[in-house]
Structures are given as C-alpha cells and as structure tokens.
Specification:
globular; binds S-adenosylmethionine; alpha/beta; 7-stranded mixed sheet; single chain; Rossmann fold; 10 helices
C-alpha cells in the first residue's frame, strides 16, 4: 500500500490491492487500484500515483510551513528495518482531520473521559501536519513518532514556524524512531494513523497497545485514516469499531490533494475493555457518511 491506502509502489500483492480497492472510492484511487507494476517502474509512475504532488496546500501558505507533497516508500528508505513496510508520505487534509477528530470527540460525550486527559500520538508523523492540527484541540500532549530522519527534522521545523505564527504554547514533540520501539505514555491515548505501514506492523502495534490498555485504565482509542488494515485491528477482539466513514474533503484540500482525491475513509476504534460495565460507553451508532 502507499500512504493513501493504495497498492504500494509495486510491492502490492493481490490481497492488498483488493483491500485498498474495498476501502477507496475516489475515481483517482480506483484508477490506481486497477493496475500493478514492477519495482523498476516505481519512480516513473510516481507522478501517476500522485499527479498533484507539487501542489502548495493553503495550510502551508497560511502558516509558512512545509507539510505537503508525496514521497514514495523508495524515497523514504534510510536503512531502518521497518523501511520495507513503509507506505510512503503524504499529509492528511485538514478538513478530513478536523471532521474525524470531532466525530471521535463526540464519542467521549457520554463517558467520564475528557479530551484534556488524552495524549495524542501520531504514529508516522511525517512532516507534522496532523500534529499541528491536533494542537488546535486541548490534548494533554501531542506527540509524533516518525521513522524517517529527514521528515522528523522537517516536522520539528514546521512546529517552530507554526508556533511562531499562531503563538500557540501547546506541547508538541517529535521523536525520530520506529513506532514499534516507542515507549508509550500513560493512557488515555488517542493513537492516530494515516496508513503509515503494512498490516504486519499494524498487528504488532495493536498487540502493544492492547497490552498497554489492559495493564492500565484501558483508555486507548485509534483514529485510522485510509484504514487499509482495519481487519487486523478488529480480528483479535481487542479493539471494536466505533465508526467508519468516508469523509469529504473541502475544496482547498481537494485542490491540493497529492492524489487528486476528493474524500478519505476514516475509521475509529476503541480498546474493548474486558471489565463488566467497563470504562467505555458502547458506540450507539455508526457515524453516517460525511
Ligand atoms: C501517510 S504519512 C502520514 C503523515 C501524517 N501522519 C499525516 O497524517 O499528515 C505516514 C508516515 O509514516 C511514517 N512511517 C512509516 N513507517 C513507520 C514506522 N515504522 N515508524 C514510524 N513512522 C513510520 C512514514 O515515514 C510517513 O512519514
């Protein structure tokens, strides 16, 4: 898969192509779902995968940051063990992120937990756009974990620029490391993923989060953009699906989306507490499509 839930730059097997196609509904993505290729053709095809990769997003124009573009899995190879499972870089559309975050927040309304108690962790923070968007909300802390050294450096620079422009004083940190080596802070956690890596790593991540949640108060939620490995999360029974929606991008996001997409699928999950009458309200309804 690449970062947008599409077949990886030519490492896709038929099952991952099938999954990507099940989860992706824009015509741009459908076009990509219908083709597979060879590694040697990856770079030549990059403009086709992300024809709009050079567009300047209004977010960056407004804040003077550099969060846009597309980088293929090959572009991001830096010698890490997990490089082979990296799906590449592109940033979430702010309109999609804000709607997804609001919907997740609505699931807290009937519970005793408050957003202010949650630490937001972006697994695969890239250039940090989602971190900056998360910092618009009063999370206890905002943390990004990024495998690629150069992207982590850009994210830190973006945070400095964004804080200067917005005069925000929120805590935002970027750690340059493999998400699987990350020492998780205490719950409550909102773990955010924008299809950073392949299902094998999602499975390992889910196992870690489940043991963290089971050993503490259990408050671990996931917000998963382009959820190519959604089944991996739910199949062992530790996480339940709160909602799953196709979220429409606003016009600015559509125009600057590297893939020329008009919407993104997002799914929210919650650690399934084992305790009778546990901490969480059960979801009452699926969020309708945006
Ligand atoms: C699609 S980008 C998402 C960027 C950002 N989270 C957003 O939504 O705007 C996924 C990022 O995950 C990073 N990544 C991939 N595998 C990783 C790993 N094992 N540990 C940490 N980061 C990883 C990639 O380098 C890439 O920057």
């Amino acid at each position: 898969m690449n970062a947008h839930g599409e077949p990886a730059a030519f490492r896709a097997d038929s099952f991952s192509v099938f999954l990507a196609c099940q989860l992706s509904f824009t015509s741009a993505i459908i076009e990509k779902c219908s083709s597979k290729g060879e590694d040697a053709h990856a770079l030549a095809r990059a403009p086709k995968i992300a024809p709009n990769r050079n567009a300047l997003h209004p977010f960056d124009r407004k804040y003077g940051t550099d969060t846009g573009g597309y980088l293929s899995p090959d572009d991001l190879r830096g010698g890490a063990t997990s490089d082979a499972m990296n799906n590449g870089y592109s940033a979430v559309g702010p309109s999609v992120f804000r709607v997804a975050c609001r919907r997740w927040r609505e699931t807290l309304l009937s519970s005793t937990s408050r957003l202010e108690a949650y630490t937001f962790v972006d697994v695969g923070a890239g250039k940090g756009r989602a971190l900056l968007l998360a910092a618009e909300s009063p999370f206890r802390k905002v943390i990004g974990v990024e495998l690629n050294e150069e992207l982590a450096r850009i994210a830190r620079r973006n945070i400095i620029i964004w804080k200067r422009t917005t005069r925000s004083r929120g805590k935002i940190r970027v750690l340059e490391q493999d998400a699987l080596d990350f020492r998780w802070p205490r719950a409550p956690l909102l773990v955010y993923l924008n299809n950073p890596f392949e299902c094998e790593l999602v499975e390992k991540l889910a196992a870690r989060l489940a043991s963290l949640a089971a050993s503490g108060p259990g408050l671990v939620d996931l917000l998963y953009v382009n959820p190519a490995c959604a089944d991996t999360l739910t199949k062992n029974g530790n996480f339940e699906l709160l909602w799953n929606a196709q979220i429409q991008m606003d016009e600015a996001d559509q125009q600057a989306d590297p893939y020329g997409a008009a919407s993104d699928r997002v799914a929210a999950f919650r650690f399934r507490t084992q305790r009778p009458g546990g901490n969480f309200p059960r979801p009452t309804a699926r969020a309708p499509a945006a």
